[in-house]
Description:
Layout: E1 7-17, E2 20-27, E3 38-43, E4 48-53, E5 63-68, E6 79-82, E7 97-103, H1 108-116, E8 121-128, H2 135-139, E9 145-149, H3 159-162, E10 171-176, H4 179-191, E11 199-200
Parallel strand pairs: 7-8, 7-10, 8-9, 10-11
Antiparallel strand pairs: 1-2, 1-6, 2-5, 3-4, 3-6
Amino acid sequence: MNALMTSAILIRQVELTNSLWLVEFLVEQSRGFLAGQYQSFYTETGDAFGPFSIASTPDQLPIMRFCTRHQLSLSLNTKVFFNPTKGHLVAADNTKHYILCAGGTGITPFLSLLKSENKRSFSCYWSLKNIDDQCLLELFEIKNVTKHYYNDNDHYDLQPYLIKHLQESNCIFYLAGPFVFVDKLGDWLIQQGISPSNIFSDMKKFI
Length: 207
């Protein structure tokens, strides 16, 4: 599904922490989206924003929520126009066990997945430098996320948490976050014998 989102109105920007904002839109017209997808948009004057992972779930429309590191340079009630939604991290196969690996705000698409796809099998691991970011789990009422507090001297990051999944035959690994995080973790999974066809990220193709 590559749904066409048309127009929306900015209704709220909330500073959750000194480096994290919640942005909400009221969608005027929509053909929907899938949990785990991302969105970009532009204003009537041509200013472009995104892409941002969609943090809300499809059943919460007409409200759409995003998380950003900075307040958007938009006034309340500004009208925006959405580009088609994109993204492959949609957990389409309910026979698979999805291993969700997030770095920083890479947790955002997984918030939507964990909240909406309750018939799927998930294990979620989150590496975060900004401890205050964990307020997102309470805000979106998400449980069962294993948190790893990353520091610059930590060379292993999420790898120790994933070892127990390496021998599972039905696992799909989803990676989201900064490119360095995705690149490093994806290459490590391949070195451990995981087929590139079982590793997905919207930032890099591993096949």
